């Protein structure tokens, strides 16, 4: 199928197999009272999306000028001529959409990339301007064999300036090499750039989509007719990428829509909670319907980071105690403590044996004191008894 008539444009051949790249399951429930008042049912939709490599290649080729040889089986049961004409028209409209989007997002860069590139360009312009000054001075020196002192000083000053700019140019060139390579046409149309680690790269291109509400479920079916993702999805995600924020999930909700545009909110996996907003001083009615899309490649690192973070926060005190316990062995503190305890155990005065001895002595003293007190009480009773006997005998 031809998509460009220019013979000088580059040509790309892409085979488009009839593979299934998205599966959806929709589940709806309705209540009797809702039905009586013609209220919408509650619908849930789960989708799995796979962006294959040939789809990325097709988006790249369709987003720039050139001839495309597209090998694909027709999805329509029509005559051959009508089939080719219909496919050509449909893909032409899709290509126009992709080219408009690519032209809109291609010049945009992240804030750090833009600042570094602008500074490098300014340095290079200053370097070229100084080189032109050097050429002018050298031309004057060739025209005048007796070189004036002023021209000689000007030549030395410009030469020093060139040396400084040469070093600065080398520095900026090294920084330019460290910048990320230019985005391909398909990358801005995919809202999730690869994460920093490649440990889960086998999940790359796999996405999960969940929607609640009839509007989102029926609307997503219409987006399944286009390459890439819906325009508003990657529009919000690309705005976050320009600001340098990583994007791993997106939420489309009445509570999370931005005030400037009715577009989904690009968020991380930790920020999928919708937030209420006020419109024109009036509180908006909460709408429970929403849609979200998550990159499977970003999911395991995010979960692992959250779990390890929680584990570290919970068990850091335990690790600190164990580390100090280990250091007490390496420093010899435990050995000194053991020797001190051992000597204290066998100490006949201050140790357990000495304590038992003191307890025994205290018990003996208490027993002797009790015996003496008992003897004194017995003597007092005997004296009282004798006194009573004498008084009884004295009575007539």
Structure characterization notes:
With 396 residues, this protein is an alpha+beta fold. Among the domains are: 11-105 and 186-297, no CATH class; 111-178. It is 54% helix and 14% strand. It is built from ten helices and ten strands. It has helices at 32-36, 53-62, 80-105, 111-143, 149-178, 214-223, 231-242, 299-330, 333-345, 352-394, and strands at 11-16, 22-29, 42-50, 67-72, 206-212, 249-253, 265-267, 278-279, 282-283, 290-295. Strands 2-3-5-10-6-7 form a six-stranded antiparallel beta sheet. A two-stranded parallel sheet has the order 1-4. Strands 8-9 form a two-stranded antiparallel sheet. α4 (111-143) runs antiparallel to α5. Residues 364-396 are annotated as: Disordered.
Topology (elements, then pairings):
Elements: E1 11-16, E2 22-29, H1 32-36, E3 42-50, H2 53-62, E4 67-72, H3 80-105, H4 111-143, H5 149-178, E5 206-212, H6 214-223, H7 231-242, E6 249-253, E7 265-267, E8 278-279, E9 282-283, E10 290-295, H8 299-330, H9 333-345, H10 352-394
Parallel strand pairs: 1-4
Antiparallel strand pairs: 2-3, 3-5, 5-10, 6-7, 6-10, 8-9
Helix pairs in contact: 4-5
Question: Which terms would index this structure?
Answer:
disordered N terminus; 396 residues; alpha+beta; 10 helices; elongated; 6-stranded antiparallel sheet; two-stranded parallel ribbon; 14% strand
What's the overall geometry?
elongated
Report the sheet-strand fraction.
5-15%
| Biggest sheet architecture | 6 strands, antiparallel
Strand order of the largest sheet: 2-3-5-10-6-7
Low-confidence parts:
1-7, 107-111, 254-262, 268-282
Tell me roughly what share of residues is in helical segments: 40-55%
From the N-terminal CA to the C-terminal CA, the straight-line distance is 155 Å
Number of helical stretches of at least 4 residues: 10
Query: What's the β-strand tally?
Result: 10
Oligomer: single chain
Q: What gyration radius follows from the Cα positions, in whole Å?
A: 44 Å
The average pLDDT score comes to 71
Question: Based on helices, strands and strand pairing, what is the structural class?
Answer: alpha+beta
Helix-strand string = EEHEHEHHHEHHEEEEEHHH
